Amino acid sequence: MEKLRNGYLFPEISMRREAHQKKYPDAKVISLGIGDTTEPIPSIITSAMSEYALGLSTPEGYQGYGPEQGQKGLRKAIAEKVYPNMGIRDTEVFISDGAQCDIARLQMLFGRDVTIAVQDPTFPGYVDNGVIMGQTGGAEEPSGRYAGIEYMRCAPENGFFPDLTTVPRTDVIFFCSPNNPTGHAASREQLRQLVDFARRNGSIVVFDSAYTSYVSDSGDKPRSIYEVPGAREVAIEISSFSKFAGFTGVRLGWAVVPDELLYADGTRVARDFDRVVCTSFNGASSVAQVGGLACLATEEGREAVRRVVGKYKENTRVLVDTFAALGKEVYGGDDSPYVWVRFPGQRSWDVFAEILEKTHVITVPGSGFGPGGEGFIRVSAFNSRERVVEACARLTSFLA
Amino acid sequence: MEKLRNGYLFPEISMRREAHQKKYPDAKVISLGIGDTTEPIPSIITSAMSEYALGLSTPEGYQGYGPEQGQKGLRKAIAEKVYPNMGIRDTEVFISDGAQCDIARLQMLFGRDVTIAVQDPTFPGYVDNGVIMGQTGGAEEPSGRYAGIEYMRCAPENGFFPDLTTVPRTDVIFFCSPNNPTGHAASREQLRQLVDFARRNGSIVVFDSAYTSYVSDSGDKPRSIYEVPGAREVAIEISSFSKFAGFTGVRLGWAVVPDELLYADGTRVARDFDRVVCTSFNGASSVAQVGGLACLATEEGREAVRRVVGKYKENTRVLVDTFAALGKEVYGGDDSPYVWVRFPGQRSWDVFAEILEKTHVITVPGSGFGPGGEGFIRVSAFNSRERVVEACARLTSFLA
Fold this sequence. Notes:
The structure is a homodimer. By secondary structure, the first copy, chain A, is an alpha/beta fold. The first copy, chain A, has two domains: 9-41 and 301-399, Aspartate Aminotransferase, domain 1; 47-298, Type I PLP-dependent aspartate aminotransferase-like (Major domain) (Aspartate Aminotransferase, domain 2, 3-Layer(aba) Sandwich). Chain A has helices at residues 9-23, 43-55, 72-82, 99-110, 125-133, 188-201, 242-245, 269-280, 286-296, 299-325, 348-359, 385-399, and strands at 30-31, 93-96, 116-120, 149-153, 172-176, 204-208, 235-240, 253-256, 330-332, 338-342, 361-362, 364-365, 376-380. In chain A, helix 6 (188-201) links the parallel strand 5 (172-176) and strand 6. The model of chain A has no long low-confidence stretch (mean pLDDT 95).
């Protein structure tokens, strides 16, 4: 814990927001910061949760502990609807209270003595949970890199994908696609390289697909790592209802641990993960699970959720156009709710602070996602169309 | 993970139950096994959750991420209603998805290099999460004790409380009262000894009060460790809505980490726990939190919950009377939903298997809670009155 010196990124931003609001009590702050959904959940989903909750007061409707691994029906719906034709069995799907919690449980499973690689930049949760588990040395200044972690640089210059011939072997590789924060979705060829690399090295890939529902329909970018042959033998996939169905507060996610994923001694990783789930967790809220099933079970539910994702994707378009019109180097957006903007020669926290001071718009400093994010900011599409448009107007006056 | 060889107790029982049901397809199995609530949740609570869930489909009612530490109102209600006059501040209450998950997060916080003590017998989660974190050596056969853990024997012979003058110092002491499985609630004098012992040794007590709502009104048994002077400087308390409001499936609990609890270097434990919560967890389901608030906010809610606890307590009385009438040594029950029955000279799993075979009643073998539980079974009051009475009739014919 001592090594984890800096504030966690989002609480830090939240503190700065409060300070700003105190300084400017009348300012209408617009948050394009934390990736928190703002659109209401479709009523087909909330009605299912509402009815289930009410039923808990009746002898017929009451349910206590469910299986720690999640309700059978939900596991089946995920296997069939999220992973069609990928050979995922319902027993390989472990329902959770969100991808962040699964990262922690996976890091508990891996323990202190593993080596890990992460994209740079990437979501801070992989590294931070590794630091808590004692996998790393201290943080180096001023980069903020932790000793012992392999940072795989993902920048515009390399198509946001590392040259794997130069990456040393690690036991575990955390890989987020579409990436948070860059918004880059790995191509089929890139994921093929990743899977081959892991197979050659006997590494486990933890593939975070929390933003996969934002991938465009062009077809050349896989929505799951299991679209790539051989992935079942090397990859765990974690994902979430948060960004896909607005469940950030309701809390629901899942992890897929295929039966073919084995340790060097031939035992199944899934057996140990099951044990961690049963020991450290007692299952996701039954109410949330009913909501998750309503998202997936019917075409009506799936269409309702797609419409919400579509709204955020329109916001992303507005953001990309705004920054492009300002002559900025802008990435992401096509396959993700995040836009990644470069401010050459500037420090991310300075850009963040200047934008907040001048426009009352919250963004996220790219350096919060790793040293490779320095000089960028992440702008989130999670807000109402109206506020996104207003924020873009302010940004345009300020940056033009 | 290698060391954690045996199946986790409750999944193991669940497998045996399935096998039994397969062998006797027509048998009406009655579970007095896992401590899973069966009574419906009072409608004042489910209505609140139901309404909130429905509101998530409206712009006014929608909420995304809440604070990782929980909703302010709920933290406040717990501080005021669960800990009246104990000086607990709302900021010291961390809302969670259940006590078992908090045990895992606390073990993550403590890390691999701490020494721990547990009651023997006790809830297996403390030890199992410690084994996953790498705190222990391997399991010794046949006792099942893990090397490196201090087992504090709690038996009828010592009033279910260890002689602390013979217990070596450890960094952390897990203490569950009312105890699961023995049903013993520590007296004020016993807790005073425990707090003094921890203060002298510079140990942290993790006090699990998940069953505290079952403590009788006699007044000589504290419902919280914070009733004992000095506890704020040594104790974390974890607790849950599961057994108190029937939230085993809804998932809601909390941990109290007082500001005065410091590491040897003078830094606050709460600061690090906050960091673990923000890194490894994203808050309890918002729907569950609304339900939790409805349990506590009004006298009507509190009374509704008390009535449910009262029903289980009547079941406990039936169970105690049944075993007593059979001439068995029987403990617990007064202050807990568990009854602890001795079968001298027999092995717990044999007793479990024989009862299941002959009466189709599920109990829990005492040895599943540690070597000190050998020769006992735990019988749970969590079932309908009708089924408890039926189970008692069967047990009487078999054991008489």
